[in-house]
Amino acid sequence: MARDDWHPDRLADLEGRRYLVTGSTAGLGFFASLQLAEARGHVIMTGRNPNRLASARAAVRRLVPDASVETLLLDTSNLGSVRAAAATVRGRAGLHGLLLNAGIVHPPKHRETTPDGHEVVFATNALGHYALAGELLLPLAAGRGRMVWVGSMSTSMWPYDPLDPELENGYTPWRAYVQSKVATAALGLEADRRLRAAGVPIASLVAHPGFSIGGRTRGIVGINEPSLAKRFTDNLQAPITQSKERGAWSLVRALVDPDAQGGDFWGPSRIVHGAPRLATPSKITRDPEIAARLWHYCEHATGLPWPYLKASRARRRR
Ligand SMILES: NC(=O)c1ccc[n+]([C@@H]2O[C@H](COP(=O)([O-])OP(=O)(O)OC[C@H]3O[C@@H](n4cnc5c(N)ncnc54)[C@H](OP(=O)(O)O)[C@@H]3O)[C@@H](O)[C@H]2O)c1
User: Fold this and answer.
1) pLDDT of residue 317
2) With a 6 A CB cut-off, is 75 part of the ligand 1 pocket?
3) What angle do the packed helices 244-256 and 27-38 form, to 10 degrees?
4) Beta-strand (E) ranges in the chain?
5) Rounded distance, CA 75 to CA 53, Å?
6) Which DSSP symbol is given to 204?
7) Which residues, at least 6 apart from 95, have a Cβ–Cβ distance to it below 8 Å?
8) Residue range 262-288: average pLDDT?
9) Residue 314, helix vs strand vs coil
10) Between β-strands 146-150 and 97-100, what pairing exists: parallel, antiparallel or unpaired?
């Protein structure tokens, strides 16, 4: 498929392939789940709220009646929930793709912490995904799979503080978002270096959706029902935005395109919108020292070092 022609309607048949998507109850995660299901992949749709999860599965089934989808409760801000969900997935067949999408995009006004004691935006967007990906290393190695971390343009718009990833000092909602997204992208690139070095057959990639907003996205009952006022204001931003459906394209391309490789960064051709292209991650997220420091921080904060050795042995036994 020529790069300019990329479209999820023309994906290869994904029958027999299994994908897990975090945050699939709304936005990019919902549309990524839908696009994978349309290509006949099996999708494990995950979310923190059982009612929203049921609505999301019902919406996929309305649009794709023969979709192969299941749901699984998974709150990425809660390490116990991450462990429990991962244990369920490990008890089943191998996994071909993991889309680490869930995120708080409108952080709380004042710093909040999770029951595990972590700043909630960092915990939800970055730390929970570090833990989940590590816990799913074996099924991903068995499926020779990929993991895709969801980054953001915001990482080049604001300074990052490597000494205070959870913003114990100087919290603002915007800083919390940027800190979490720098961490997410840096961890995604670092994961690929570590997996390669350990000989684990899993690729780690980063993708971003440009600027994707609900008021420019088709209405779907229970998933995206913007008010007329939101439609109006979001459409005023048309030149610099796209729909969440389109935004999901970069994520899905990174997850399934045979041309995509570990260490890649995928995003819209015109940065804020457009068809997915290979792009260059922001400088801070490419910094190996920042990434190594974050990795060490996550290992310590979760108490979950990644099981590289077991994952590389899983490959040798196949
Ligand atoms: N939209 C953009 O322009 C843009 C740009 C750059 C990066 N991103 C990234 O793309 C990802 C998705 O953004 P979006 O625009 O689709 O946002 P969204 O419409 O607000 O959807 C966020 C999704 O994440 C879920 N979520 C939030 N906290 C969670 C938790 N603790 N556990 C599990 N799921 C949780 C939400 O579930 P609930 O239904 O339970 O709330 C929802 O399904 C985020 O990581 C965001 O940082 C988005």
Assistant:
1) 44
2) yes
3) 60
4) 18-21, 42-47, 68-73, 97-100, 146-150, 203-207, 265-268, 276-278
5) 12
6) E
7) 18, 19, 20, 89, 136, 139, 140, 142, 143, 145
8) 96
9) helix
10) parallel
Please check the confidence at residue 314 and state whether its pLDDT lies above 90: no
- The residue with tokens 């196949």 is 318
102 lines ligand 1 (CB under 6 A): yes
Cα–Cα distance, 245 to 254 (Å, whole number): 15
Q: Report, as an integer, the average pLDDT of 126-140.
A: 98
pLDDT at residue 304 above 90? yes
Torsion of CA 237, 239, 245, 246, to 10 degrees: -160
Which domains are assigned to the chain?
14-317 (3.40.50.720)
**Comparing 92 with 100, which gets the higher pLDDT?**
100
Closest CA to 39 of 62, 15, 57: 15
pLDDT band for 98, please (50, 70, 90 cuts): very high
Counting atoms of ligand 1 from 1, which one is nearest the CA of 78? Answer: 31
What is the token pair recorded at 29?
A: 């995660």
> What backbone phi and psi angles, to 5 degrees, belong to 147?
-120, 140
- In ligand 1, the atom with minimum distance to the C-alpha of 25 is 43
Q: Say if CB 210 and CB 266 are below 8 A apart.
A: no
The SS3 of residue 214 is helix
Q: Which of 44, 101, 130, 273 to mutate to test the pocket of ligand 1 (most atoms within 8 A of CB)?
A: 101
Q: Is 235 helix (H, G, I), strand (E, B) or coil?
A: helix
The mean pLDDT of the chain is 95
Question: Has residue 277 got a pLDDT over 70?
Answer: yes
Distance 198 CA to ligand 1 centre (A): 31
**Angle at CA 130, nearest 5°, toward 125 and 134?**
150
3-class DSSP assignment, residue 278? strand
> What's the token pair of residue 146?
């990929």
Report CA(201)–ligand 1 centroid distance (Å). Answer: 28
Instruction: Give 147-162 pLDDT, tens digit per residue.
Output: 999 999 999 999 999 9
Identify the band that residue 237 occupies on the pLDDT scale cut at 50, 70 and 90: very high
